[in-house]
């Protein structure tokens, strides 16, 4: 068991992560999972959580935290009439289905496999954000019909495997079809709600009865970490919303891209370091 002083230090680190995740939820429309997952991975490792379940526990706990932060962010963005409600309504089945598929995959994939998923998607999206050009578009109108539903399932599945709220992928998806980054960010907050709620139940099921989980865990969700971070994140999320609407498109994309590269490098180090 780590010394009390170290436990206090890591509790403070979790609190700081709550501040950052809340700001990210507001600025980028994400639930903060991209920062929480690596922080959890580090903390759970220090607490001697076995390597085999550490990444799974990090992802599941992040998903649980995304529920309230996404709802808070969605409410704030919707007040500004920035959310594409038609897109969200069309994904009312696709996104939750993807989140459920992610939890099924998580029950069988290895810890290293989950980290590679996180790294690969983070780097691809980061490069798209950093080197984005107005001419880099798939089209000028979001697809409808089966193509839109497939996109929703893919976004839900990959986000569920990363422990994120879908903002990383939905921002890329919407801007690739000519939608403004501010609308993409606002809509992503609603995407997070549709992914994280079924994701909670999925990760509880996926980790039910798995040995090596720390106290306060139900399946792959640690409620002690949730209780520490959620109150802080809820307070600071509206600040992030105000920042998002004050920043330019290029500032949002550059900041988001750099952030994702740093996260990807951190996980590559955990695999090869």
UniProtKB/TrEMBL annotation:
UniProt protein name: Probable membrane transporter protein
Keyword line: Cell membrane, Membrane, Transmembrane, Transmembrane helix
Domain of life per record: Bacteria
Organism of origin: Shinella sedimenti
Family stated for the protein in its record: Belongs to the 4-toluene sulfonate uptake permease (TSUP) (TC 2.A.102) family.
Transmembrane segments: 7-37, 57-75, 87-108, 184-208, 220-241, 253-272
One Pfam family recorded for the sequence: TauE
Compartment(s): Cell membrane; Membrane
Topology in membrane: Multi-pass membrane protein
């Amino acid at each position: 068991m780590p010394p009390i002083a170290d436990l206090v230090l890591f509790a403070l680190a979790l609190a700081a992560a709550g501040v950052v995740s809340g700001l990210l939820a507001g600025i980028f429309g994400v639930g903060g999972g991209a920062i929480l997952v690596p922080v959890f991975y580090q903390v759970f490792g220090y607490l001697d959580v076995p390597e085999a379940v550490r990444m799974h526990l990090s992802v599941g706990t992040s998903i649980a935290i995304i529920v309230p932060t996404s709802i808070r962010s969605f409410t704030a963005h919707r007040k500004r009439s920035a959310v594409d409600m038609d897109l969200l309504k069309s994904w009312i089945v696709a996104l939750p289905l993807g989140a459920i598929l992610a939890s099924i995959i998580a029950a069988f994939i290895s810890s290293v496999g989950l980290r590679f998923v996180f790294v690969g998607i983070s780097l691809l999206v980061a490069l798209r954000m950093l080197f984005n050009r107005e001419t880099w578009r798939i089209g000028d109108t979001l697809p409808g019909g089966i193509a839109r539903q497939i996109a929703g399932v893919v976004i839900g599945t990959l986000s569920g495997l990363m422990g994120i709220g879908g903002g990383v992928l939905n921002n890329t998806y919407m801007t690739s079809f000519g939608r403004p980054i501010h609308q993409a960010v606002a809509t992503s907050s609603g995407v997070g709600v549709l992914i994280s709620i079924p994701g909670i139940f999925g990760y509880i099921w996926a980790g039910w009865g798995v040995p090596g989980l720390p106290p306060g865990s139900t399946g792959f969700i640690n409620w002690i970490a949730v209780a520490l971070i959620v109150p802080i994140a809820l307070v600071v999320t509206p600040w992030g919303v105000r920042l998002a609407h004050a920043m330019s498109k290029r500032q949002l994309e550059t900041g988001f891209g750099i952030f994702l590269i740093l996260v990807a490098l951190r996980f590559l180090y955990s695999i090869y370091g």
